[in-house]
Amino acid sequence: MQQTTQLLRGNYQYDRNAYIAAGEPMIFHCHHYNVYLQAVIEDTSSYLNVYPMLSDSAQEIVYTQFSNFFKENQDLSVEDKKYICQDYFSFCGFGIIDLTNLTKEGGKVIAPFEHYGIGWKTKFGLREKNKKGVAFFAAGYIAGATEAIFDLPLGTLCTEQKECISQGDTKSSFEVFFRKNNTEDENHTDLVASPQEGKYQTYQLKQPSNTTIDYEGIRQALTNMDLQGDSQTGLIDAFGVLLTRMYANYYCLISYKLLRLFEDEMGKDGLPLAAELLTEAGHVCAYNTFGGVMQSTEWNAMIKPMIEKKHDWVHGITAVVNAFGWGFWEIEELKPNQKLKMKIVSGYEPNNYLAHFDSHTDLPISFLASGGIAGIMNLVYNTSLTEDFITLDENEYKKMIQKTSLFQAQKYICRVKEHSQFDQITVSSIAS
Question: Which residue from 67, 100, 110, 336 puts its CA 20 to 30 A from 151's CA?
Fold first, then answer.
């Protein structure tokens, strides 16, 4: 069994800067981005029906991954399959789930630790009891895994959260049951298999000549780190944040389905608002994730000794990104305190969009990348992080974004929109 679970954990593919596990691209993101992106989506729930897609998207991906894996490993019993799905949930930092009592008709699932519930409470405090629980991803994971375990068609089951750690409950719990059909459930949408790796590209990591940062050395060191869920909690506590090995396609699906909901409700005029919300989530991710990395013991031990000039901080965090599974990030131009032009090859956002959606868009869709690149420059040049330790809280963030020297994406070539071979995003100060 141990050998089988190891097969599912996948490998880092250096030719496309991606972790691939049973066909699914997995990427590192932390609780700040996970819960903030979900909060941004939930804020639109008063006029958009967003809740079903949060769990349905996870169900589509998890079902595809496990059903394919189980077809390739046909000697597994039902109990073996349950163990594998539980183990992978914990390995990825999602927490701990107990699938023991599930049957092909469903059943109850207990999660004594769950990433979104704990992450939400850590970032936002206790959630009101009159709201839904926040573990939509876990709910979809459980439904998709159960369908794969019992070889049921995708969309047969759904999951309802009954208790949530974010609301002060001692555990999160879920009820799995048969999904109603279209005529009985207005929230039902047809579930579609995951695009898996999508339209990925191959490339070779390049070492810039104008920095002392060792890109390949950092990538090798980070991709060989043993980053997996703790045996007691199933959580990954690293770089000062709660990390997850999250499905790249999950972020893409919930983001791009949100775009479709905005367009259906408001027409194309609603798309810029959706893009602004999703890009801000990427900026918040950079502030917390990159900021946490740049103040971590791992950074101080591995990367800070390489830094000679301030612009090396930008190169250092870019080198780290190249071990996150996000594709290749390559600095084409860096003017300290003025401009950063980043080339992105095989970015996980266009990889998904080009494979999963049947139409091109006039809107650039690399929201995480756009916000993240601006966030790098804002951390380095609009905070004192490179000189002193700072507390990365809401007050510090508000001070940063109120500066006239704030960096934002000013020029944006998108692989989807322009039919380009790569994304090219240029951020500069809004005052320039």
Answer: 110
